[in-house]
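retry 2 of 3: previous attempt timed out while embedding MRU. Reduced batch size to 1 and resubmitted. Inputs unchanged:
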Amino acid sequence: MKIDGKAWRTIWLEPDGRSIGVIDQIQLPHRFTTRTLRSCDEAAEAIRTMVVRGAPLIGVTGAYGLMLALQVDPSDAALAAAFEQLNATRPTAVNLRWALERVRDRVAPLPPEQRAEAAKAEAAAIADEDVAMCEAIGDHGLAIFQQLVAARPAERQQEPLRVLTHCNAGWLATVDWGTALAPIYKAHRAGMNIHVWADETRPRNQGASLTAYELGREGVPHTVIVDNAGGHLMQHGQVDAVIVGTDRTTRRGDVCNKIGTYLKALAAHDNNVPFYVALPASTIDWSIDDGVAEIPIEARDAREVTHIQGRVAGELAVVQLTPDGSEGFNPAFDVTPARLVTALITERGVAPASEDGLRNLYA
Ligand code: MRU
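retry 2 succeeded.
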């Protein structure tokens, strides 16, 4: 995607061929800055502190993290230790484990002196594939949006398609394009009249900060709403579709996404608003069935609940929201059962949220 006319990915190999560049997402939307990651420790810290975030992007960062570790020590022991260190940073998104396993399995049979280069090539391949998958998700999602518009009565054809999204499942959550936002970008570029309701997404406000930032750079009309507004808007016919990403999708189609997604799905179900989930294959965890029982939910620092970051007089500042002494609790994700999902939009096409639906796509 372009920022001030320049095409950016969220992660890249620096010109030295040894270190990794990333966009510092903690600074957005107020400052566009980049960071260079030079060690496995720095990659792990960037994932843990959410300098990089979003399921596909943390997978790619983890893959490059293994490369950084192997440049220093390509032994079996170092590979295993780096794998564990990176995998422990964030527990919910399965893309991280998937990408780490892919790089480990690629390099482990090689002589140690060849491992760092092989890890680099594998990480680059994962990044390139992620871009292709997200773009394909965009095309399949665009077809759904076109069907929604075509199904309207003639006098409503020109009205904007009003799409609600939660958290940030856009370009910044992936390498490029995004998952849930890819169909929105495709629709906008195809000239469709589209408007996005962006949930602010407390506590870290990825919607208010990152989704709004991305949509603004791309010129997509959007409005930021508080997390609790979606149900009201649906009751009043102001939402034509909901589309979100997922950090882990079980084989029966349960989806785990940013906390609050489940409530949006319930409201959508109650108001006959279609609820779509966009995902690449790397987000499917074929080893589990029941998302509520089996997906580990990341508990983040309560300070993200009791405090909030914003810009004060031009500078980034953190302010306290809650009274001294009040505790916070901060589960970062929740699970939406498959029965509430209208369809899964993947790089291979659109499927019902069910084991048969997924297996038909990924035979
Ligand atoms: O905690 P985050 O910001 O990493 O959470 C991101 C999300 O919940 C996204 O919706 C999810 O990773 C799918 S993104 C393509």
